[in-house]
Amino acid sequence: MVTLEEVRKNEEVEALIKGAQKQLDGLGYTEHSHRHISIVSKRAGEILEKLGYPERTVELAKIAGYLHDIGNCVNRTDHAHSGAIIAYNILKDMGMPVEERTEIMMAIGNHDEKTGTAVNEISAAIILADKSDVHRQRVTNKNLSTFDIHDRVNYAVTNAELDIDVEEKKIILNLTIDTKLCPVLDYFEIFMDRTMMSKYAAKYLKVWFEVVINGAKLL
């Protein structure tokens, strides 16, 4: 069976990750490279593992999380769709069974808030993991005077943790935001669509989604 470790070592995957970040650097986007995809991979796996899903489903979620943004190497627009097809073909070449690579393709193809939604357990975990990664380490622009609202919001977040409370059936996004840099309202201005997508993804997994900012429950 194809594992996350094998995917990490795949030269084609590595080239696509580097190419995707090169293109996003040119567009002035936040970091979508190894840091981000590793966090999404780890969190997606943790979500399904703690909710009691089978070990193989957990591994597939980790693989999908690691591959979810490779479509940015083609173009930022429709990157979820192009990335899903690229990932499907890479995993096919690696010998993954069609049933597994189809589930991963569905998850990657539905992770973007403009066109996607939770359609299987893996996609729901990917959505929650992806949308929870808001942090100043993702800001590649080092000139604060030229920050747009996305740079400012991400830079203001000094801590972001995704907690899975199995007993209460909750997934909680805990954020610490430096309000001297960015008011909390700005976070929801640009992330409301992602927040609602996360809420529906959690519902697919039969749990509740909450957002806590600076200790205050806001959703």
SS content category: alpha+beta
Number of domains: 1
* Mean pLDDT, all residues: 95
Element-level helix/strand string: HHHHHHHHEEHEE
Helix share, percent: 40-55%
Named at the architecture level, the CATH assignment is Orthogonal Bundle
Please state roughly what percent of the residues sit in beta strands, choosing from under 5%, 5-15%, 15-25%, 25-35%, 35-45% or over 45%.
Answer: 5-15%
- The CATH first-level class comes to Mainly Alpha
Q: List low-confidence stretches.
A: none
Count of DSSP H/I helices: 9
Describe the largest sheet: 4 strands, mixed
Please give the alpha-carbon distance between the first and last residues.
Answer: 40 Å
Q: What is the CATH homologous superfamily assignment?
A: Hypothetical protein af1432
Number of strands: 4
**Shape by Cα distribution:** globular
Question: SSE layout and pairings?
Answer:
Layout: H1 4-9, H2 11-27, H3 34-50, H4 55-67, H5 79-93, H6 98-109, H7 121-131, H8 149-156, E1 157-165, E2 170-177, H9 184-204, E3 208-213, E4 216-217
Parallel strand pairs: 2-3
Antiparallel strand pairs: 1-2, 3-4
